[in-house]
């Protein structure tokens, strides 16, 4: 039950942070650089499935090991690494295969992936600590 609760509490946090970035902070940046490649409509089913899997990855590869080691630092470093490798894979694959994929998008998105995963990982670590403490009472 601990992992389900951790996941369910992390999902809205991830969505809030990423939607703030995509919908407010960097919206014009992406439109200005990718308008020639963007679909008219988002496939929300695919997007939501991706997000649900991705959040599980942050928990599995960063938060759970960090909690097991009782180390916020381990969580943060692993979450940053997860963000780097996953976003770099996506961005560099796009750069290699899609015509006119802007190099500035590659760099900004990789930095965003590191930031997003680190923020979510740290927050989920604290959520996990609270859940663990509540479970002991």
From TrEMBL:
The chain crosses the membrane at residues 7-24, 44-64, 76-93, 105-127. Keywords: Membrane, Transmembrane, Transmembrane helix. Signal peptide: none annotated. It holds the Pfam family DUF2177. InterPro entries: DUF2177_membr (IPR018687). The keyword Isomerase does not apply. This is DUF2177 family protein. It comes from Lamprobacter modestohalophilus. The lineage of its organism: Bacteria, Pseudomonadati, Pseudomonadota, Gammaproteobacteria, Chromatiales.
